[in-house]
Amino acid sequence: MAPPLPGPLEHLAPLLSQYGYLAVGGVVLVEDVGVPAPGETILLAAGVYAGAGELNVLAVGLIAFAAAVIGDNIGYLIGHFGGRAFVHRWGKYIFLTPKRFETAERFFTRHGGKIVTVARFVEGLRQANGIIAGTTGMHWLRFLAFNALGAALWVGLWVSVAYFAGTHIDTVYDTIKRYEVWVLVAVAVLVAALVVRHLLRRRAERGKPEAR
Hints:
Layout: H1 13-19, H2 21-33, H3 39-51, H4 57-90, H5 98-111, H6 114-118, H7 125-135, H8 140-165, H9 169-178, H10 180-207
């Protein structure tokens, strides 16, 4: 039996109970295309369900990761081919007004690729991330790399936290949001350390003399 979802997650219980993984992928994808949707919230709800044995936590993570990357890439295509004129005409329907878009675009341009990763954790930027990358002309492969890293960190953090916190997730979530910047920095440092360790190992292996 699915556990009761606490507080702000409660309204997602019927959707998650009926559609399961499809709900997770669909909501995350729609949000990352640019449409306001409870993507982060459904990750938490799905994590709680996974912790109770109702869903497989690995499947939740992989589906959410794929949906996040695909959704942002659809947004990128919209921004790349539609341009600012498209955003100014249709953005208001997803609450992306010209003023908000210009502010986000300036911020995005100033901080470059790293903001694609950090944007996952910022409400508003998360939804407009791909569209802005497309309109500013960021190279697609560069966007894809930073986007995938951000998706992995975002999905991994919230699904894992909810999986272990269970029905206490609302308290844990509030605490993490309060210190979100520090949590993100810690995760980024950990990932960077693992990457450096991997590169050093590869370099050491290449430096070893071949056995005759």
